[in-house]
Amino acid sequence: MALVKDSTDLMTHRGPDDSGYYVYGNVGLGHRRLSIIDLSSGHQPMANEDGRIITVYNGEIYNYKDIRQELISRGHTFATNCDTEVIVHGYEEWGTDCIQRFNGMFSFVLWDDRTRKLWVVRDRLGIKPLYYYSDDHVIICSSEIKPILNTGLVRPEMNDNVLDAYFSVGYVPGPETMFKKIRKVLPGHFLLVDRNGLVDREYWDFSHIQCRETGFSEAKDHFEWLLEDSVRKRLMSDVPLGVFLSGGLDSSAVVDLMNRTSGAGSINTFTVSYNEGYSEEKHARTIAEQYHTNHSVFYLEGDDFFSSIETLIRFAEEPIVEPAAIALYHISKLARENAIVLLSGEGSDEVFGGYYLYRFMNGLEKIRRMIPRVLDPALKSISPYLPKDKYRKYADWLVSPLEKSYQGTSSYLTPSIKKRLYSPDLMSQKSSYLEDQFSSYFRRVMHKDPLSQMLYVDTKTWLVDDLLLKADKMTMAASIELRVPFLDYRMIEEATSLPSGYKIQKGEGKFLLKKIMEPVLPKEIVYRKKMGFPVPTKNWFQGKLLSQVEDAIMNLRGNNCFNKEFLKETMLRHKTGKEDNSRILMTLLVYDEWQRQYL
C-alpha cells in the first residue's frame, strides 16, 4: 500500500481534491482526483456492487449521461452521478466493446477480479497521456512517468534508439519515450493483461475513411452543428470554466461557440503577452471586447522563460521543444484563480489543414514530381553549400518523396544538417526509429492525396506527442483540466471524409472553418496569419538571454554527441542575426535540462 500511495501522490498536482488506493493480492490501484463533476461523490478507485470490477480513471466522458440512461434501462444501478461509474457498468454490460460508446478524453485502468484481467485504455486521439512498463512479471501504468520510476522496478536510462527522433522533430513519437523500457499506450489502443501476457489492440483509427461527395454548403452546415455540439458537450462541469484566447481563428471560434451554447454569464478568457512587440494581445482583446468576456493577460518576461525550462521538463517529463508550453504553464497558474476547466483551439489545424507547411509541401511535391530523378545527385551535392539551413532542408526534401521527406510541422533536422551537427559516433549509431514510425503511418494512407496523408500522420505523431502532451502536462501542473472541442472524434471522421479542397482552397488554409466563422468574427481575426501563443525566443536568444544560452550550449551534458564547431557556428549565426537558429538552440537546451533532472 505504501508504494502505491507514494507513487500516486507524486501526481498530487493532477488531482489535489481527493485520493484513493486499492491493494488486493498482487494488484494495486491509486488515484488523485481533480473534482469536476458530482463534487460530493465520485471517489476513486470505483467498483461495481460486488467489488469485483474496479477502475481508476483520468478524463471526461462527455456523453456519459446518455450511456448512463441506457445502462439503467438495462437494469444497472448507479450510486453516483459521475462519469466514472459509466466505465464500470459499461464494462459489465458490453465488455471491452463499451469503449466504442465513449465520446471523451480519458486514460483508465480497470481490474476484473472475476477473470483476473487488467484492461488499460487510452482515448482515440491521445488527449490524455498513459505510460507503462512491463516485463514477464509485472506491469505498471500511470498518467505520468515519475510514479513508474518511483517503484524502483525500472531505472531512468537514456533510450538511445529515439535520440535522433528527438533532435529531428523536437519530441519522441510513440510508443517509445526518451526513457528506456517506458512506453506510451498509443491513441485509440488498449492493453489487455492476464496470466498469458500482454496484448496491444487498436480499437479506433480513421485511415480507412474514404472521401465522399457532398456539397460545400451541406458540409459547412453539418460542421457548424458538429462544432456547436462538441463545445456544448465540453461545457459539462460543476466548476468554473474559461477559454485560452490567443486571438487567432481557433480560440476565437471557441469563444463564439461557447457564447452561443452556454447560456451562462460572461466567459473567462486568458491570454499570454510579451513586452517585445511579439504579442497577440491586441487581437485577443478584440474578441474579449466583442463577447464581453472577463479577460486576463499574463506578461511573460525573458528571464522567467529561461528559468522555466526547468519547470517545463519537471512536469512534461519527456523532452519537448515547445516554447509555448512555458507560456501555457504560466497562463494556467493565472487562470486557476478563476477557472478550473478551460477550453482551447488545439487540433483545428490538423482537422482543417491550417498549417502553412501543408500548402508548402503540396507545392514542393508537385515540383519534385516534375524534376527528372537523374538530377537528384546534383541536388544532393549542392545542398551542403547553400547559405542557410532552411535552404539545405528544402533541397533535401526535393530529392525525397513525401513519405520520406515529411516528418511533421516541427521537422528541423534533415540528413545534410545532421551530418554537420552529430558527432561521427552519434551518426553511426543513429537508428531508423523515426523513419519507421512515419513510414508505418504513411503506408496506411498511401491511397489518399498528399494533404490527407500529412493530416493523418500529424494527428498520429506531432499532435499527440507534442501539442497534446504539452497541453495536458502544463495545464495539469496548475491543476487545470483542458478540453479540446476540435478533437471530438466525430469531427475527425467527418473531416476525413471531405475533399481536401474544402480544407485548403486557393492557397487559403482552414477554408471550411473560415467560412463557418466569417459571419460572426471580425475579418482581421478570421484571415490573419496563424500565430498561436508565439514566444519571442529568437529575440531573447539574441538579446537578454544571449549569455545564458551561449554558456549552456557550449557546456552541454553529453556534448561528445555533437560537433562543437557546428554548435559554435550555429550560436554565432543566431546572435549576429544571420539566421534564426532559436529552434535548434531550444532543442539543445531542453535536452540538456532533461539529462540534468532525470539522468
The low-pLDDT segments are: none
Globular, elongated, flat, extended or rod-shaped: what is the shape?
Answer: globular
Helix content: 40-55%
What kind of sheet is the major sheet? 6 strands, antiparallel
Q: What is the number of helices?
A: 28
Distance between the termini: 28 Å
> What share of residues are in beta strands?
5-15%
Q: How many DSSP E strands? A: 16
User: Radius of gyration from the CA trace?
Assistant: 24 Å
Round the mean pLDDT to the nearest integer and report it: 91
Class derived from helix and strand content:
alpha/beta
Lateral strand order in the biggest sheet: 3-4-5-6-10-11
Report on this model:
It is built from 28 helices and 16 strands. It is an alpha/beta fold. The protein has a six-stranded antiparallel beta sheet, covered by helices on one side. The chain has a five-stranded parallel beta sheet with strand order 14-13-12-15-16. β13 (268-273), α8 (281-290) and β14 form a beta-alpha-beta unit. The longest helix has 18 residues, at 216-233.
How is the secondary structure organized here?
Layout: H1 2-8, E1 18-24, E2 27-33, E3 46-47, E4 53-61, H2 64-73, H3 84-94, E5 104-112, E6 117-122, E7 131-134, E8 139-142, H4 146-150, H5 163-169, E9 183-184, E10 189-194, E11 197-202, H6 216-233, E12 241-244, H7 249-262, E13 268-273, H8 281-290, E14 294-299, H9 302-307, H10 309-316, H11 323-335, E15 341-343, H12 348-352, H13 356-370, H14 376-382, H15 389-398, H16 402-405, H17 415-421, H18 424-429, H19 433-444, H20 450-460, H21 462-477, E16 481-483, H22 489-496, H23 511-517, H24 523-526, H25 537-542, H26 546-554, H27 564-575, H28 582-598
Parallel strand pairs: 12-13, 12-15, 13-14, 15-16
Antiparallel strand pairs: 1-2, 3-4, 4-5, 5-6, 6-10, 7-8, 7-9, 10-11
Helix pairs in contact: 2-3, 6-7, 6-23, 10-28, 11-21, 13-20, 20-21, 26-27
